[in-house]
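Chain A, query sequence.
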Amino acid sequence: MSGIQLCGGVDTQVYQFGKGDEQAVMLHCTLGHSMAFMPLAAGLNDLLAMTAFDLPSHGGTADWDGVTPIQRQAVDMALDLLSEPAHLIGHSFGGAAALRLACERPELVKSLTLIEPVFFAAAYADNPGLKDQHMGEMAALGAAIDAGDPEAAARMFYTDWGGGRAWDALPEQMRQRAEKQIYLVVAANDEVGEDSAGLLASGVLERLEVPTLLVEGGRSPDYIAKVNSALMTRIKNAERAVVDNAGHMLPISHPKEVLAVVRPFLERVAAKLVQAP
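Chain A, predicted structure.
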């Protein structure tokens, strides 16, 4: 079932699938769309009733207004889909947004499954010099966008974050979509890189008690391992899993391997919730 709903003030493409008793909301990555979760969701259909939505300027959702901080927008959209406490599953930017939602409204979150969350600020905090290194690498991408060369910017992005997929091997439609959306990669920096939401300074991560699974690919950019290490030291109920030979796009490239770590985690959480008084 799918349709357009007003979420966070945005006309949003929403999908619902699965027949499980546990509710879940799924947040996809930048340059992606909700249907990319389908291979993973197929293995969770009996456990979860899942709701996924396209981010602004993605899929069937209206364009981002360029004013509301993009992560703030994503969180507000997800909140409008949470009629009751649910499991959150997020990938990349969607993982960072899910983490922020859990910090702001923990009473609405049963568990967090964060697949390659790009909350770079956490990694910067624990690794002196890492921010300068990353900003230096991103400078060329930003310069290409500013110069009006979105193809060059998208090609750079996919080289590091495409999970091993070669730019020239992508379908033409996908390349065109990536060129149109590439500016969104740098639009989120204040929130994922500078922590404008104040998750680190406030100590809210240390107070978070939501069961959390951190998933990463063994062949992903090293920034992700550093992000997950930083989150592991701060979130009490966090556990971590590495999918060997997978890159950043592992929910798409390695759905069976991701499912093999995600499903047992969700089953354990659901069982504990049933046993709780």
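The chain has a mean pLDDT of 95. DSSP finds 13 helices and eight strands in the chain.
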